[in-house]
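Researcher: Here's the sequence for the chain we discussed earlier.
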Amino acid sequence: QKHEEAGEVPVAFVVKSSEISEQEIKEFVAKQVIFYKKIHRVYFVDAIPKSPSG
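Model: Thanks. This is the structure I predict for it:
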């Protein structure tokens, strides 16, 4: 996603199958990655489109 200062920032597209919040996802990812790879926004979608190769 475009960002004024950083140029681009990570976001996540999540198929929600249970009760989980955007904050919970951000906190989980923040524990796994270095600070500049933290997710800035979570988009909940019904499905992730697949290409012919999967």
